[in-house]
Amino acid sequence: MEPNEQIARLVDVNELANLWRVSPHTIRAWVQQKRLAPTRICRRLLFHPDECARFLAAGNRDAQGECQ
CA–CA separation, 10 vs 21, rounded Å? Predict the structure, then answer.
């Protein structure tokens, strides 16, 4: 790994729900519908900023805000 590379901060379900102003249930529903792909660590659902950007770019306009 290059010294200048930044490690992306993963966002959990509750943080993403707050950012996008939706309920955590909605985030989990999108995961179940395979519209949003989480990174699973143990039993936690975490989301990479690139996946959040892909989801928004795919035209999922019901989500507002950005994941950073």
Answer: 18
